[in-house]
Amino acid sequence: MASTSDIRKGLCIKYNHDIYKIVEFLHVKPGKGPAFVRTKLKSVTTGKVLDNTFSAGHKIDDVRVETRSYQFLYNEGETYHFMNTDDYTQIALQRDALDAYDLLKEGEVVTIIFNAEDNMPLSVEMPASVVLEITHTEPGVKGNTATNATKPATVETGAIINVPLFINEGDKIKIDTEKGAYLERAKE
After folding, report:
1. Do 156 and 136 share a domain, yes or no?
2. Among the listed residues 86, 138, 81, 120, the one whose alpha carbon sits nearest the alpha carbon of residue 104
3. Structural domain for 11, as ranges
4. What is the CATH number of the domain that holds 110?
5. What residues are paired with 39 via a beta bridge?
6. Cα–Cα distance measured from residue 72 to residue 83, given in angstroms and rounded to the nearest whole number
7. 91-109 residue pLDDT tens
8. What is the mean pLDDT of the chain?
9. Are 102 and 120 in contact (CB under 8 A)?
């Protein structure tokens, strides 16, 4: 048993007869009244996200998890296939277990979180950033950079990312997987 002081991003807990992963949390200490923790929970079985508030000191039932490195192989519609980088066993997961499936390219190594009790995969954690190539974007207009103007660009996985005007087709860019946002042009 854990308490609200143990809450952190990525923690898996049992709540309402399901397993949820903590996506966001905020400890709140109002001037009047007791402290509480505001959380955003994502169900690992259905993918449904809900907001919940725990009072300070509330006991939570955490789930013991194991993490393993897997390489993304390919996808067939809604099913994504991964291979363990240690023993080369393969598993298939549904799209709702992935947070940023549109930024996942073949060969990318991800961390898959497993429930230690029944060895069921709970969720897939992407690396903090990925480098992808721009496959289509409109050319930037010279002299149109007085503001932080952006334009949509399609990357090799099919995702559409807003990029600065100086980015062209064929450029490789670094993308923040948590926000799905442009970080910088990748160094060759």
Report:
1. yes
2. 81
3. 2-62
4. 2.40.50.140
5. 25, 52
6. 7
7. 888 887 777 788 888 888 8
8. 83
9. no
